[in-house]
Amino acid sequence: TTEPSSDSDSSPTVESVEDNPDGGCHIYRNGYYGSSIDVVEGILEVNIIQMTSIQMTESQAENSLVDFVVTCQGSLPTDVCTVVSDPTCQVSKSMVCDPIVVTDECLLTIRRAFEEPGTYCINITLGDDTSQALASALISVNGGEST
């Protein structure tokens, strides 16, 4: 139960009562409590603003490379995860997570490799210790070219 205290302190007084099964006695505890809440902004929004295919020579073309330019709002991320899925975004094909260092402005380029041509769903998640935000896009990879 909570009762106001009789002195000038405005903190609530907490009285707890416990049953003692051995002797049928009650134990009374009186005191004050305090608590604090920290509100953090978190990562509010992620946007993929550009997707660029990296041109490679035929001898290098084992994988198609695509650069994703990503921006975000809110706090600065400390890690990025990219999930590559089928075009319906239902069946995951691969996932890569990397730590990142973003200083003043949340603008980063993420390079990912695609083993074969096709249409893929890309989920890019930026995260920090307290939040995550996600952006998704469909990409068509055509043997070294993407649209």
Automatic annotation (TrEMBL):
Residues 71-121 form the PKAT KLD domain. Residues 1-15 have a biased composition (Low complexity). Signal peptide: none annotated. GO terms for molecular function: integrin binding. One of its GO terms (cellular component) is plasma membrane. Residues 1-23 are annotated as: Disordered. It comes from the Eukaryota. One of its GO terms (biological process) is cell adhesion. PANTHER family: MELANOCYTE PROTEIN PMEL 17-RELATED, TRANSMEMBRANE GLYCOPROTEIN NMB. This is QNR71 protein. The lineage of its organism: Eukaryota, Metazoa, Chordata, Craniata, Vertebrata.
